[in-house]
């Protein structure tokens, strides 16, 4: 958890340098009991333009991640913290493509419930 704690206290340029080391290892981290916390902290505390490689790693994997015990938490953080609508568009599209399966999954249902509703309220003023 030292990386998560470091992301709380270091400057933005140091954060950006540190998280670049994750490039190519994002999916492994997301599926890891401790690594998923690092990815979540990156999403929460680093501007989107510095972590595009994280979002790119999720392309084509959103439904699978949503049904994973740690991956679902990461996808939830993305929906909560995306900086602008286009950044999350492919993620929402992939969720909607599998919404019936996700809604019945023990982890996927969390993504389809509160977080999609929160996303819609945030971006569409419903």
Automatic annotation (TrEMBL):
Residues 1-126 form the PUM-HD domain. Pumilio repeats lie at residues 21-56, 57-93. Keywords: Repeat, RNA-binding, Translation regulation. InterPro entries: ARM-like, ARM-type_fold, PUM-HD, Pumilio_RNA-bd_rpt. The keyword Plastid does not apply. The keyword Repeat applies. PANTHER family: PUMILIO HOMOLOG 6, CHLOROPLASTIC, RNA BINDING PROTEIN PUMILIO-RELATED. This is PUM-HD domain-containing protein.
């Amino acid at each position: 958890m030292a990386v998560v704690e470091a992301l709380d206290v270091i400057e933005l340029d140091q954060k950006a340098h540190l998280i670049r080391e994750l490039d190519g290892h994002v999916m492994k981290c997301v599926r890891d009991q401790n690594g998923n916390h690092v990815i979540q902290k990156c999403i929460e505390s680093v501007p989107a333009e510095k972590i595009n490689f994280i979002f790119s790693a999720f392309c084509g994997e959103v439904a699978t991640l949503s049904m994973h015990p740690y991956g679902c938490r990461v996808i939830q953080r993305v929906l909560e913290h995306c900086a602008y609508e286009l950044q999350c568009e492919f993620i929402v599209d992939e969720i909607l493509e599998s919404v019936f399966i996700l809604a019945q999954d023990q982890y996927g249902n969390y993504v389809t419930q509160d977080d999609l509703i929160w996303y819609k309220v945030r971006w569409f003023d419903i």
